[in-house]
Amino acid sequence: MGRLADGPRLALSAAYWIFVLYLLGPLLLMTALSFKDANFISFPIGDTTLAWYAQVVQDQQFLSALWYSILIAAAVTLVSTVVGVWIAMLVSAENIWFRAGIFAIACLPAVVPGMISAISIRIFVATIDMPTGTAAIILGHSIHAVPFVMIMALTRLRTMPANLVDAARDLGADAFVAFWRITLPYLKPAIYGGMIFAALLSIDDFVRTFFLGGYRTTIPMLMFAKLQGGMSPEINAMATLILVATAVIGLYAEYATRRARSR
Fold first, then answer.
1. Are 52 and 236 in contact (CB under 8 A)?
2. Can you list the domains of the chain with their CATH numbers?
């Protein structure tokens, strides 16, 4: 009986590692090719060099696009966190009419295809006479990020004991003080996760930036422009740096979330 049970377990383990290899294989290949000592991508890799990384970190166009992406991501994180937490509080409140409808409408940007979302926001921006550029990009990215922040905050709120807020209100706290002293600290793990998720979504968003952007380029737009001239180890070096930074941010977010939950 034990041998029969080992068969499906081994099959699941093999399927898992095949899936991991499928995910990590292209990333490892991309990283390896970023060290190739040539102006083109080919096999075998041959001689290796760090010159491409030195060129990228000294490239003013790359640095400008990086800082512009960080600026947009910071604004998107702030807007989407405030709006997402507010909608989560609204949906979780008692005696709210059309609660299911509010939740469905708030989740809509997460399920609408990116191309459709970008076109619709571009039409809206043109309708209200907002020029394309930074403000339009922040609006588009925030609309896309709000549902993810809201779901994280709402999931955390549903595990919160209701008697905590009731006890604070019985002790004389008004609604604002109860939210600031009780609800907000309880939401910290979800807020940390939502903020990091919103920032990463913004930095990675190409489609909405393409439709809403102005003359300044973000990291995805810069890499897309460079791809028009063909693949080169320089593009791989850029992608590797972004990948490492994303991984570090993600790991830190996981650490901060776990630490906040333990507290």
1. yes
2. 51-262 (1.10.3720.10)
pLDDT average, residue stretch 3-18: 74
DSSP label at 48? Answer: B
Cα–Cα distance for residue pair 116/108, rounded to 1 Å: 12
Q: Which bin fits 78, alpha (ψ -120 to 50), beta or left (φ > 0)?
A: alpha
Please classify residue 2 by burial: count the beta carbons closer than 10 Å to its beta carbon, then call 0-12 exposed, 13-18 middle and 19+ buried.
exposed
Sign of CA dihedral 69, 71, 77, 80: negative
Question: What pLDDT score was predicted for residue 1?
Answer: 47
List, for residues 52-82, the tens digit of each pLDDT value. 888 888 888 889 999 999 999 999 999 999 9
Distances (CA, A) of 231 to 43, 51, 113, 134, 177: 13, 16, 27, 29, 56
Closest CA to 193 of 141, 113, 246, 254: 254
Query: What element of type H or E holds 236?
Result: helix 233-262
Q: How many CB atoms lie within 10 A of CB 196?
A: 19
Count CA atoms within 13 Å of residue 196 on its CB side. Answer: 19
